[in-house]
Structures are given as structure tokens and as C-alpha cells.
Amino acid sequence: MSWMFMRGSIWKYLQCGQYGRTGDSLHHFPPAFFFNSEPEEVLSIDEPSASADEEMDSAILFGVMRGNVVGLSYYTGVVNNNEMVALQREPSNPYDKNAVKVNNVNGDQVGHIKRELAAALAHIMDSRLAKVEGVVPFGAKNVFTMPVQLSFWGKDENRQVVLNHLKQYGFKLDPMAKGFGSNWITKRAGPSYSAPVLPAVQMSAEQLMTEFDKLFEDLKEDDKTREMEPAEVVGTPLLPHQKQALAWMVSRENSKELPLFWEQRNNLYYNTLTNFAEKEKPENVLGGILGDDMGLGKTLEAIALILTNFHDGKPLPVEKRENDQSYQKCNVTEKPEKCEKGNTNKLGKRKCEKGISKLHKEATCSFQKDTDFDLALAEPATKVKRKAMKKGAIVSQCSAKVVSEKKTRATLIVCPLSVLSNWIDQFEQHVKPTVHLNIYVYYGPDRSKESAVLSKQDVVLTTYSVLTHDYACRSNSPLHKVKWLRVVLDEGHTIRNPNAQQTKAAVDLEAERRWILTGTPIQNSLKDLWSLFCFLKLKPFADREWWHRTIQRPVTMGDQEGLRRLQALVKNITLRRTKTSKVNGKAVLELPERKVFVQHITLSEDERQIYESVKNESSAVIGRYFNEGTVLTHYADVLALLVRLRQLCCHPHLAKNTSFSGIPGDSTPEELQEKLVNKIKLVLSSGSDEECTICLDSLTFPVITQCAHVFCKPCICQVIRSEQPDAKCPLCRSELRLEHLVEFPLEESETSVVEKKSKEWLPSSKVSALMHSLTELRKKNPMIKSLIVSQFTAFLSIIETPLRESGFVFVRLDGSLTQKKRIEAIQCFQSSAPESPTIMLLSLKAGGVGLNLTAASRVFLMDPAWNPAAEEQCFDRCHRLGQKKEVIITKFIVKNSVEENMVKIQDKKRELAAGAFGTKKMSSSEMKQAKIKEIKALIDI
DNA sequence: ACCGCCGGGTGCC
DNA sequence: ACCGCCGGGTGCC
């Protein structure tokens, strides 16, 4: 199993923390299992293109036949020998409703499929019985007609239907037999698109992972190891690997080479995959994917790039500040008012208090979530940071000097809201203070709609939500009018869903150079990668058909050649270093060692007694569900029981407020409401990996329906809107009402619950073990700082008591803190002052991507996480760039308990996560089986 | 299109 | 000749 790709899943996890803050979402645990649904039902809500895509993933070759393309002289599209062509239905054709257009790789029409054949194909294509693909064997000199080799791909169960249908029209498919068939395609239609005769042996996921591992294992290529000094205005000295990144990025931006798989032949540029040729030189991708692992300094690398490579390798011309006077003039002089923590309204949006100057609210007021739904723009929300404004619009007005360059100099940076302020900080930190850089934060209701304002900037910062929102009304979106010098997508894996508006909004930006920053370039599936290639405008892969035919299908079918192509492609445009990767054999970053210990805990007799009795009760209930076959319909209840057991492993008091709700029956609306709230809280906080079955992504803005199914609010609202007046639950078809949706109460503090109990405080075996370790550690070295991590914030509260009693100074970081308090807590903890806290109580999922707790070199993980990636992410908060000490992690696991079983499941998940790339999602029945197995394993049935 | 097909002109040897 | 044959017009769907 590869460590590197473990990181991948961790990163995905991180990303969930950032947006949803609620659920894990491992790709191999699609949502269907929980909701007891068939994926087909879900797909029907999705765009047709998405489902077509799914179908193609499992397509087999039905056979091939020869056909004819006619009417060539009427169209401009030309085709080479052995060039791939696309077939497209044209039902609106006035002469023949069966018409089938033939287009070349460029999308130019070449001709039509001959009438009689089109008559046979129309139905097959319209009802998606098969995808029909063409290759023209001799295309070059045909004037009126040309032959085309058609291959039919589809689901196995449609094979006979297609064959019979064709037969009715007098056509017959040749099976892809040796000799003519496969040879023909293989040898003549570009490099190997061969379809094995036997059922495809899928390359195992592990194999694929290993193959990809090798790509970045040890970077030896010249262009990735050469170093470059940044422009003089970059105030921070770059580390060697950062100079390498800069050199590589600059070389990519200034590349005059042809893109991969293109050759110059005679006077034409020739694509060796599709055999397409054209006169115009295909643009290379002036950019790529910066896939460095977190902590290696992607932000700094990007800032260095912006300042260092303006045109022809020359640095960005910037204004030097003569004295601070000119700067002062530009300042926002009005003193910003403080904005108190907003109240949380029904939608979970945090509103700032009324009457506060719109312009000068602090980051504290900003939305915690960056979702399409947050309607941030309609709200009187925020300027993200006052200093942003300082540098932003107001400054730019007085920086009269416009660089004579006709081209725009502006770089657009798109990032999640949670890292927006980080970008501003980093610019401030890394750009010499003597330099004036125009940075405009395009965010908030007062953002300029003048594209001229934006194009004048050096840097424009915005968020994915704003980008997507603007895209919806493109005509009014300056973002989409400016021809950017450069667009940088930070946390670029957020555009991994090619059907999402967010992705489309990003792809639609016009830019000379395009970059994706992400810690997880290769996340789960090839399709994720395709989104990135779309954004990079990688010819010809931005078109799904060519991507599919040249890369995705060959790879998923186990074609070695296809895999090599994919590898070459990824390697060509990606720079990725991990904490452990090496450059010419030398570690890119020396990190101190990290050791994980498991401390087994034996429950006291009293604790064991309670545990066993609850366990027996739970086993009985779950056993009954098993017998009834209703485990999955009672999934939330099962989770509740399991959570209770896990809590009992930590502290008996914890389990008291997780009552088993049972089946909602004749309860009052208030009770039902409460039960639903409890259910959604449970599902989201249990650490199981739930996803929204509509967007198939991690839950953003989770809501629960009356029928107890959880979706993203935007997703389910769209369903309700489109199915009005009688919308049905996508999962169980029960009636849906907008007003019945129950939301996940954000950031609820659980301290009140525990405070009541604090009078009757009792220790537990686990707490005692922790306290023992902590006091021992303090004796040994009182300066060492520790993280105490739990998924149960109430447990953290319980731990507070003995910490106080033993005189430990500690801070606490969990989801209930405001942004401001959060920052305070982190700064306080990171401080090296002698009286600074040595302990941080940390809720497992608190904080976003960048949470840096390197002051700690000890981690006490109080309870095992459902998802091992969550633990890894948590460990990485202190085991990262800047950590000077050895990191020692202690995991407390109660013997003979659900916790031990969770550890076993974790191990299995690690294996799965390592192999997630290139595998399809499990079918819903496989999923159910997996989930049932998991529950069985957890409760020992 | 150096084809096929259409339809008009034409018609012993 | 209700044929054959000739040669011009013509041509995706």
C-alpha cells in the first residue's frame, strides 16, 4: 500500500472538513448504502450526460461494422487516414429525422452517415443502447464519401438488443475477432485502442496506484529539479524545493513546445492519439497542476510565480513605494467597527448584526462555509479582511500608474472562502513591504462589476461561490469578461465533478495561463482528473469523447498503452512532491520521525458492567434488525447504538444524552422534529462516511427529510423546486415539503450538557490513563505540548476537569468557536511563551486545511475515528513543515470493545483507500453488503 | 462521381 | 418501343 496515496484520501478528507465540516466521504463508500436506494434512481435526477458517463464506464464492445460517410463536399471538416470521428444524432434534420452527423476531432462536421445506416443507428443512439464510435480508415483524399469503421459499446445486457435491431435493418456486427477486427483498430486507428476479446480483466486498483506512485517517487527530470531564484520583490527566501517549483512553473508558462501527443508533420500539427491534424499550432498548456503535498508551500510558490514571471520570464513590474506616505493616502482611514459573532438563522447563515458599517466588517463575520448555497452575495456580508480592502479597490484607484503593457497583468486566484484570508496574509508576508502590489478581493456585495477595474489589478482574489454565482449571470460577471493573464484555482480538486456548476464556471474563465493547486491531483477516479484537464484546456482531452476513447476506457480496460499515455500526461503537467518524496534520492523535506503507539485500556469493573449491559441490549436490537432485514433502514438507530458504545469506552457520562430514539411513530411534531435533529446530528457526527445521494459528494449544508434521509440542502431544494408541486424523496419516494426539511444545527456547543454533570464528575479508565501519561510527560519535560483529540466534544469537556485539577494550562479548539476565538486559541497554543498552554483539547474535525499546530509534538487520540484518514489528517496538523521534534502519537483503545473492532475496520479501509483510484463506485448492493458486514464486525454478530 | 441513378431522346442494316 | 441503348444532368441528410 502506498503511503503517498494514503495522503490522497486524507486530503479528500480534509476538503470535506473544510466545506461540509460534517461528513467523511470516502469515494468507495458511496451514499446509497445508507439510504437503501438504487443508484439508478439517483442518477435520474442528475444530468443525462452524467448518467451516460456512468454507463460508459462499464461498457463492453458489441462489435464493429463498416459504414459510409456521405456528403463530404458540403462540409468543411476534414479527416485523416485512421482518424477518430464522433457520431452525433441530428433529429432536427429537415430531410431525415434519423440523420447522424459525423464530426472530426475538432468538432467540425465532416458529413453524414448514409441514410440507410442512419435509420438503423438512430434508435440505438437515441435510447443509449450503445455508444457508436467511428474511425475513418482512409479519410484523406475522399471527396464525396468515405468509409467509416463503427464500433458499438454498451452494457452487456443491451448487446443482443443492439444486434437484433441492426439485423432488422440488414446490418451485422463483426465480433472483434483477431485478425481483421482488433488488428484493424489497433494498428491503424492510432496507437492501440484495442478491445480484448475476452471480458476485460480490470487492472486492480492497487496496480494502478502503484503505477502512479512511481510517477513522483523520485523526481529526476531536469525541469523539475532545476532551481530558480524568485524576483527580487519576493521577501521570503525560498527553500530548494520551492525554487524548483518556481523554475518548473515558469518553464511551463513560457513553454513553446507542442503539447504532449502532438507532432509536426510537414506543415501540419498532428495528434498521435486521434490522428487528427490541423494547420494551427495547438497551444501547449501554459500552466498545469501544482500538486505538492500540504505544508510544502504551494501558496508561496504561486506568489513567487506571479511576481517572477510576467512576460518572457521577466518579473511583474511593480510600483515601489517611495515612502509610506503615499500608501497612507490610500488607506482606509475609517476605523473598522467590531462585528460580534452573528446569530445563526434558520438557514445556518450567520448574519452580522445590523447597523454595522457594511464596508468594514472583519473576517469574524464571514461565512464559515463556502457553498453554492450560502447566498453570500445577496447578504450584507463581509469584506473579508480590512487589510484586504486597504490593498484592494481603494488603493488601486490611487495607483495611477498603469503599466504600458496591453495585455492584462492580472492573475485571478479562486479559492475556498476559508483560505481567502490566508492568501492575503501570505501576500503580505512574502512580498517585500517596499513594493506596492494591487490586490483586489472580489467578494461581498460591493464588489466591482467593472471588468476594467479587475483587469488593472495585479491579483484578484475570489471564492468558488462567487465565481459560480457570477457564472450564473455571466453577462454581468466581470470575472468572465476579463482576459486574465493567469487563473489559479486553489484547492483545485474542488472542481472534480465535471457536471458541477462550479467546474463549468471555472472552465469558462478566459486566461492565458491556467494553474491548479491541489494536494490531491489524483484523487479517486479518472473522471476527477478529467475535470482538471478540462480546466487546463488540454487538447483534445477537454472533450469527453476523446478523453474517454484515448485514455479513460483503455486504462479502465487494463490497456497498458493507455495507462502509459495517462502517466505521461499526468507527469507532463504535474509537479507533485510529498513530505516523503525525494529529489535525486534526497528527501525534499526532512521531517522528524512520527511514531504511533496504541495504548490498550482495560475498563474498570463498573465500566465493563455498564458496557456489557448496553452492548447486550444493542446487540439484541441490531440482531432483530438483521433478522427483519431492516438494518439499513434503521441505519441511524444502529449508528446511535454504536456511538453509545463508543462513548461508553470513553466515559460513562457521555452516553447519557444519546438516547435510542427507536422508530418514529405516533410522536408529536415537536418530538418528531427533535428526533430528526438528533438523527442528523448523529449521522453527521458519528464519523461514518455519508455523502449526498444527489450530488454524490460530501454533504454541504446537510438537511434531513421527514423520511429521515440526509441531503445537501441545495441539492434537495433543487429537486423540490423542479418536481413541484408534489416532490418526492429521491430515495424513498415519500412526500417532500420544503418546510419540512430539518437542518443540522451549526456549531452548537455541548458544554451546557456537560456542565450540569460537572458537579458529579467521575474519572474513567481512559481519562485516568490520559492523565497518567500527561503527568509523566510533564515530569519528564514540562515544555512539551500535546494535542488531546476526541470526536466527542463532550468528552473534551469532561477531560477539562482533571486537567484543571492537575494544574495544566490548556486551550480548546472545536467547531463551536468563532473564527476569531479560533485564531486566538491557535495563536495562544502555538506561542512559545513559558506560561503558554501546553495542551490543546481538539475536536477531531475542527479547523480547515491549513490548521497548523506544530507547537505540539504529542498527540493523544482518545477514541478511534471511523475513518482512518481523519486520524491521519489530525496527526498531520503537528507533523508538518515547521515541526522540529519527534512526534509521538498515542491512541487509546479499549480492549474487548467496539473500539478494537473499529481499528480492524480502519485497517481494511486503509487498504481500500489506497486502491480507490481507477475503481468504480461499488454497486448499491455491494455497498449494502459492505455496510452490513461492517456493522456485524463492529458489534460482534 | 473514372461511379449509379434518373429521365429524355431515340430506334434496321 | 409497354423495350434497349445512348448520353446529359446530376449527386448527403
Automatic annotation (TrEMBL):
UniProt-listed Pfam families: Helicase_C, HIRAN, SNF2-rel_dom, zf-C3HC4_2
Encoding gene, per UniProt annotation: HLTF
InterPro entries registered for this protein in UniProt: Helicase_ATP-bd (IPR014001), Helicase_C-like (IPR001650), HIRAN (IPR014905), P-loop_NTPase (IPR027417), SNF2-like_sf (IPR038718), SNF2/RAD54-like_C (IPR049730), SNF2_N (IPR000330), SNF2_RAD54_helicase_TF (IPR050628)
This protein's GO CC annotations: nucleus
Main location: nucleus
Compartment(s) of residence: Nucleus
Official protein name in the record: Helicase-like transcription factor isoform X2
Signal sequence annotation: none
